[in-house]
Design a protein that fits this description.
With about 260 residues, this protein is α/β, with parallel strands linked by helices. It has a single domain (about 5-260), classed as Rossmann fold (3-Layer(aba) Sandwich). The chain is built from 7 helices and 7 strands, in the order βαβαβαβαβαβααβ. Helix 1 (about 20-30) packs across helix 7 (about 230-240), helix 3 runs parallel beside helix 4 (about 115-145) and helix 4 runs parallel beside helix 5.
Length: about 260
Amino acid sequence: MLPEFDLTGRTVLVTGAGRGIGKGIARVLAEAGCDVAVNGFSEGNAARVAAEVQALGRRGISIAADATKLSEMERVAERVLNEFGHLDILINCCGDSIRGTVAALPDARGHVMTEADWHSIIDINLTQAFTGCQAFGRHLLQRRSGSVINISSFAALRPRANIVAYAAAKAGLTRFTESLALEWAPYDVRVNAIAPGQFPDADTMTAEQLQQRDEQAKGTIPLRRVGRLREVGLLASYLASDAAAYVTGQTFYIDGGLTLV
């Protein structure tokens, strides 16, 4: 292995890692040599992923917390720093969407977002990055070292109807990433984002269902398949490593070419 890519002995917190993309990132970083703190909304999912980290020979701890709440993330920070002593990598990976229109459309059925829906989607996709960075920011800045990776979405670049809150939050995450990168660059803390396209969780699907998703993707995605969770983890591994020491403030789209069409 090229030494710049080596993550052996580094520590990472991945929020929203009880399932989906966050889970995939946690697994890959454990394979790369990281000790991993797994945050999830529920203890059960987080504990299962932490057990997978341990099975790979790394330290893995699970912490159930609502990452949209600063008080909860401060509790997470206290636990992580007590357990690991320091944090090298922070990955803010919470995200979810509620499909719905801003107002009732004439002659159309479907969910109209409530005010509560709006705030919930903004919080889980954007506010969670603020709370994570504030809770761990003092530690990273005092150490003058660290990599922050915010998980965005192709929706930050490509608008679509009926996901207004989600798209707005992810677009906001792009500017948050860029602005914070400038704020923290003098202290050698890098801030980047990854914007995945379609990445279904294969662990919750049969092989036939995944194959069907790939078949459907042939008509919409240039590389003619959906993504694999491991692929986001591999990109995160690069951004967390010294190989990306001169990279900050960037959003990397990993979507099989979806944002090009």
